[in-house]
Every structure is written in structure tokens, then in C-alpha cells.
């Protein structure tokens, strides 16, 4: 099994924080511009700092984990067992206040 949480978070943040794609901070004419498909050096620096901060929050503080069973040749009983283990491991990594689901 492998942990795909960091990969998923990194790809989603990269797509959402690409300067000029959805939002650009600072813009060329205004402080915030939306969908202008242009960029600048300052904008790349600001977006990379935001990207680093959000990656730290999601991976270190929150601890996002997506465990996917890696054995494709397993029979159905092993696949069900692996899926159950992956479900439990996702919720075991959640913050302690979410343990209310188990009680």
C-alpha cells in the first residue's frame, strides 16, 4: 500500500495556485486579478510562498493521507481487507476531535 495524500494535495494546489490561471496576486493592473493568463516574477514568488504554507498546513498540521492498496493481483477477500484497512488508516490519521465518529 502507498500513501497518495501528499501527491494529491500537491497536484491540486499546483493547479489552483498557478499564477494567472485562476487568480494572480499581485496582478499587473490591480492587486488581485482573476483569469488573466499572465504572470510576473513577483506573482510567482507570492504564489510559491502561499503554496509552501498550504502544503505545510495540509501535510504536517492536518496530516492528509490517502492509502491505496497496491496489490492488483489480490483476490476479492484480500482486496476487501485492504480497502477496510485503508479506510481505517485514513480516519486513524485524522485529528483527535474527529474520534467522536467511533464512539
Tell me about this structure.
50% of the residues lie in helices and 8% in strands. Mean pLDDT is 77; it is low at 98-103. The chain has a two-stranded antiparallel ribbon. The chain contains 3 helices and 4 strands, in the order E-H-E-E-H-E-H. The protein is elongated. The protein has helices spanning 5-16, 41-62, 76-92, and strands at residues 2-3, 23-24, 33-34, 67-68. It starts with a strand and ends in an 11-residue tail after the last helix. The chain has one domain (2-98). Helix 1 (5-16) packs antiparallel against helix 2 (41-62). It has 103 residues and is mostly helical.
Notable features of this structure?
two-stranded antiparallel sheet, single chain, mainly alpha, 4 strands, two-stranded antiparallel ribbon, 50% helix, disordered C terminus, 103 residues, 3 helices
Mean pLDDT: 77
Return the string of H and E elements: EHEEHEH
* Biggest pleated sheet: 2 strands, antiparallel
SS strand fraction: 5-15%
Given helix and strand content, the structural type is mainly alpha
What is the overall number of helices? 3
Distance between the termini: 28 Å
Described by the principal axes of the CA atoms, the overall outline is elongated
Helicity, in percent? 40-55%
Radius of gyration: 19 Å
Regions with little confidence, pLDDT below 50 for 5+ residues:
98-103
Strand numbers in spatial order across the main sheet: 1-4
